[in-house]
Fold this protein.
Amino acid sequence: MDATLKGLIGLVGGTDVEARCAALLVLTNLETSDPKVVKAVGEALHAKNVVVRDFAVGYFERVRPRDGLGHLVPLLDSEDDAVRRRAVAILAHYGQAAITAVRKLLKGGPRRRLNAVIDLCGRVRTSAALDLLFEV
Protein backbone atom coordinates (compact mmCIF):
# COMPACT_ATOMS: atom_id res chain seq x y z
CA MET A 1 0.00 0.00 0.00
CA ASP A 2 1.44 3.33 -1.01
CA ALA A 3 1.52 6.52 1.04
CA THR A 4 -1.37 8.11 -0.87
CA LEU A 5 -3.70 5.23 -0.05
CA LYS A 6 -2.60 5.35 3.60
CA GLY A 7 -3.32 9.07 3.64
CA LEU A 8 -6.80 8.53 2.20
CA ILE A 9 -7.52 5.88 4.82
CA GLY A 10 -6.41 8.34 7.48
CA LEU A 11 -8.79 10.96 6.10
CA VAL A 12 -11.70 8.51 6.12
CA GLY A 13 -11.14 8.00 9.84
CA GLY A 14 -10.70 11.69 10.57
CA THR A 15 -13.11 14.21 12.06
CA ASP A 16 -13.51 16.66 9.15
CA VAL A 17 -16.70 15.69 7.33
CA GLU A 18 -15.72 17.25 4.01
CA ALA A 19 -12.33 15.52 4.03
CA ARG A 20 -13.93 12.19 4.91
CA CYS A 21 -16.42 12.49 2.07
CA ALA A 22 -13.71 13.53 -0.39
CA ALA A 23 -11.52 10.60 0.64
CA LEU A 24 -14.45 8.19 0.30
CA LEU A 25 -15.21 9.60 -3.15
CA VAL A 26 -11.59 9.16 -4.28
CA LEU A 27 -11.44 5.60 -2.91
CA THR A 28 -14.69 4.81 -4.70
CA ASN A 29 -13.39 6.12 -8.00
CA LEU A 30 -10.11 4.24 -7.57
CA GLU A 31 -12.22 1.11 -7.03
CA THR A 32 -9.63 -0.31 -4.69
CA SER A 33 -10.60 -3.32 -2.63
CA ASP A 34 -7.55 -3.45 -0.39
CA PRO A 35 -8.52 -5.00 2.98
CA LYS A 36 -7.42 -1.91 4.93
CA VAL A 37 -9.52 0.31 2.68
CA VAL A 38 -12.55 -1.97 3.06
CA LYS A 39 -12.12 -1.93 6.83
CA ALA A 40 -11.87 1.87 6.97
CA VAL A 41 -14.88 2.36 4.71
CA GLY A 42 -16.78 -0.28 6.69
CA GLU A 43 -16.18 1.72 9.86
CA ALA A 44 -17.45 4.83 8.06
CA LEU A 45 -20.76 3.02 7.56
CA HIS A 46 -21.39 3.62 11.26
CA ALA A 47 -20.50 7.32 11.21
CA LYS A 48 -22.84 9.74 12.94
CA ASN A 49 -22.92 11.99 9.88
CA VAL A 50 -25.49 10.91 7.28
CA VAL A 51 -23.46 12.24 4.35
CA VAL A 52 -20.38 10.25 5.36
CA ARG A 53 -22.51 7.12 5.65
CA ASP A 54 -23.98 7.80 2.22
CA PHE A 55 -20.53 8.03 0.63
CA ALA A 56 -19.46 4.83 2.42
CA VAL A 57 -22.51 2.97 1.11
CA GLY A 58 -21.72 4.38 -2.33
CA TYR A 59 -18.25 2.83 -2.12
CA PHE A 60 -19.73 -0.62 -1.49
CA GLU A 61 -22.29 -0.12 -4.27
CA ARG A 62 -19.61 0.58 -6.83
CA VAL A 63 -16.62 -1.48 -5.68
CA ARG A 64 -18.34 -4.54 -4.17
CA PRO A 65 -15.22 -5.88 -2.43
CA ARG A 66 -15.14 -9.59 -1.61
CA ASP A 67 -14.63 -8.97 2.10
CA GLY A 68 -17.33 -6.30 2.32
CA LEU A 69 -20.10 -8.70 3.25
CA GLY A 70 -19.45 -8.48 6.99
CA HIS A 71 -19.73 -4.69 6.89
CA LEU A 72 -22.98 -4.67 4.92
CA VAL A 73 -25.05 -7.26 6.78
CA PRO A 74 -25.50 -5.04 9.90
CA LEU A 75 -27.11 -2.41 7.67
CA LEU A 76 -30.17 -4.65 7.40
CA ASP A 77 -30.98 -3.42 10.93
CA SER A 78 -30.75 0.23 9.92
CA GLU A 79 -33.70 2.38 10.87
CA ASP A 80 -33.21 4.34 7.64
CA ASP A 81 -35.31 2.69 4.91
CA ALA A 82 -33.13 4.02 2.10
CA VAL A 83 -29.94 2.62 3.64
CA ARG A 84 -31.62 -0.73 4.22
CA ARG A 85 -32.84 -0.89 0.60
CA ARG A 86 -29.40 0.02 -0.72
CA ALA A 87 -27.80 -2.61 1.51
CA VAL A 88 -30.17 -5.28 0.18
CA ALA A 89 -29.37 -4.28 -3.41
CA ILE A 90 -25.63 -4.52 -2.73
CA LEU A 91 -25.94 -7.79 -0.83
CA ALA A 92 -27.92 -9.32 -3.70
CA HIS A 93 -24.78 -9.10 -5.85
CA TYR A 94 -22.98 -11.33 -3.34
CA GLY A 95 -25.54 -14.07 -4.06
CA GLN A 96 -25.30 -17.27 -2.04
CA ALA A 97 -22.67 -15.81 0.29
CA ALA A 98 -25.16 -13.14 1.38
CA ILE A 99 -27.89 -15.71 2.00
CA THR A 100 -25.51 -17.72 4.17
CA ALA A 101 -24.52 -14.58 6.09
CA VAL A 102 -28.09 -13.51 6.86
CA ARG A 103 -29.39 -16.97 7.77
CA LYS A 104 -28.24 -16.59 11.39
CA LEU A 105 -30.00 -13.20 11.68
CA LEU A 106 -33.52 -14.58 11.47
CA LYS A 107 -34.08 -15.36 15.13
CA GLY A 108 -35.05 -12.47 17.35
CA GLY A 109 -34.71 -9.87 14.63
CA PRO A 110 -36.85 -6.77 14.29
CA ARG A 111 -39.50 -6.70 11.58
CA ARG A 112 -37.43 -4.36 9.41
CA ARG A 113 -34.56 -6.88 9.33
CA LEU A 114 -36.90 -9.73 8.43
CA ASN A 115 -38.44 -7.66 5.64
CA ALA A 116 -34.95 -6.89 4.32
CA VAL A 117 -34.03 -10.60 4.40
CA ILE A 118 -37.22 -11.45 2.50
CA ASP A 119 -36.36 -8.80 -0.09
CA LEU A 120 -32.81 -10.16 -0.37
CA CYS A 121 -34.06 -13.71 -0.89
CA GLY A 122 -36.37 -12.46 -3.63
CA ARG A 123 -33.48 -10.78 -5.39
CA VAL A 124 -31.03 -13.69 -5.09
CA ARG A 125 -33.48 -16.38 -6.26
CA THR A 126 -31.54 -19.53 -5.42
CA SER A 127 -32.75 -22.71 -3.78
CA ALA A 128 -30.99 -21.68 -0.57
CA ALA A 129 -32.79 -18.32 -0.68
CA LEU A 130 -36.10 -20.12 -1.13
CA ASP A 131 -35.29 -22.41 1.80
CA LEU A 132 -34.50 -19.36 3.92
CA LEU A 133 -37.86 -17.84 3.03
CA PHE A 134 -39.57 -20.93 4.43
CA GLU A 135 -37.68 -20.40 7.70
CA VAL A 136 -39.01 -16.86 8.04
In short: The two ends are 43 Å apart (CA to CA). The chain has a mean pLDDT of 92. The longest helix spans residues 17-30.
